[in-house]
Amino acid sequence: MSPPAATPAAVSRRSMAVAALSTVVEWYDFTLYLYLATVLSRVFYGGGAVALGTTLAGFALAYLMRPLGAIAFGHIGDRYGRRRMMLLSMAVMTVAMLATALLPTRDQIGPMAGWLLLLLRCVMAFSVGGEYTGVVAYLLEGARPERRGLVTSTAAAASEVGGLLAAGVAALTVGTMSVATLDGWGWRIPFLFGAALAAAVWLARSTMQESPEFERQATQGSVPRNPLRMSLSRHRIGILRGFAISALGSITYYVGITYVPAFLTETGGVGEATALWLSTGAALVVVMVTPLVGLLTDRVGRRPVLLGLCGAAALLPAAMFGMMASGGLALAVAGTMILAMLGGGVSAVGAVATAEQFPGEGRLTGLALGVTSATAIFGGLAPYVAHRLIAWSGSPLMPGLMIAVVALGLLPILLRMNETRPA
Fold first, then answer.
1. What's the CA gap between 383 and 60, in Å, rounded?
2. How far apart are CA 330 and CA 334, in angstroms?
3. pLDDT, the chain, mean
4. What is the pLDDT of residues 240-288, one digit of tens each?
5. Contacts of 237 (CB under 8 A, 6+ apart)
6. Which residue, 354, 104, 120, is CA-closest to 249?
């Protein structure tokens, strides 16, 4: 049985557009870190395979802050309003990105530079924790019931615009500078651009309307006093299902898309600039696929689309990573694009399906407990684990096999999931 639908109310198209497009910032920053992983490993950790592993480990460790941030910001969103929460999270992100761009390097202050980078990654992850779930909830609550899949999927599409920007800016920066210039000061440019983008989004958000769902709760006096307690006591099944959906989305995205540049550089014999341009193309593919899948979920339902994508995730990725490791550019392009379609499809249906597991009261906290905890485990840790598994086994198929194992493990939960599309 589906949770009660949010009360439809007039939300301006401008507010909906600002909410959807604002996810560009969070994914720009986090994707940028992975796309520049080899550069950052030289600048902050001295370079080499060990330094790259340390850089990826720092990404994974910082990602563990996401659930904590999601719970903290989710409490604010459920208790004091979606708009207030989204303004606060974007302000923290702006400061963290600007500070990253201004960091001293290892050559300037020694190993302390790496620790400072990790600290700022943790701050960024904490603020991002509530960002995506807040936007998804806002879009779901402002959309017409028959268009929830399409509208909510725009958050995932906008996220990929952030990934597209990150890949493009990183590729342009790496491709137009010598290694000495890039390591000296060029790496700062993409982070400065991100800080400016975040500040612009904060200004746009300041003009947004409040979510009609939260206004309904305020009018009826049903705003939860303790959203965390409510979610743990009443929404445990929703949290479990949200965890499963997000785990599938995270592993297909972070291993199947954002880890690919490092994989191609280290295993596929592709240069840094070429790998980043391939990732730019992959991000463009995801932007095109996401709204189509969102619209499909409005037509046929969330459950059948999820099950179909889960089956594809069990069958395709290992073969795609094998193709990319073959050394041929054409096969690398094909593998990258197919993995991008898979990851984009899961992200599209996952956005609406996870939010529909909860009623309006306590929705952000429920999403925080299910979605962001899965993202921390199957997203932040996944690139590092994939890197270590390849080093241990010598097989380039390991990242694809990781995705397959997770998909098969989650299949029983998804099979028991009820349809949440409004009748």
1. 8
2. 6
3. 85
4. 999 999 999 999 988 888 788 888 887 766 777 788 788 778 888 988 9
5. 357
6. 354
